[in-house]
Amino acid sequence: MLRKLIALAITSGLAKKAWDMYQEKNGARPTASAGKARRKPASPVTRRRVKPASEKS
After folding, report:
1. pLDDT tens digits, one per residue of 1-30
2. C-alpha to C-alpha distance for 10 and 34, rounded to whole angstroms
């Protein structure tokens, strides 16, 4: 169990270093501008109507 924890710590540290280097090279992730974020709210999910079991033929 201790070996797994050590391996996890090492790999997560390496992954963080790689991610930080990637962000420095390619810039930070783009974010939505305030205008685009407020333009249109998410559309509600429309559900299909199903007849009750007593009305099915």
Report:
1. 999 999 999 999 999 999 999 988 887 766
2. 38
Kindly indicate the confidence band of residue 34, based on its pLDDT and cuts at 50, 70 and 90.
Answer: low
Report residue 41 as tokens: 């709210």
Give the length of the chain: 57
Q: Mention every residue, 6+ apart, whose C-beta is less than 8 A from residue 23.
A: 29
Write down the pTM of the prediction: 0.45
What six digits make up the tokens of 33? 């501008």
Any idea which residue has 């090279």 for tokens? Answer: 25
Residue 13: both structure tokens together: 């540290």
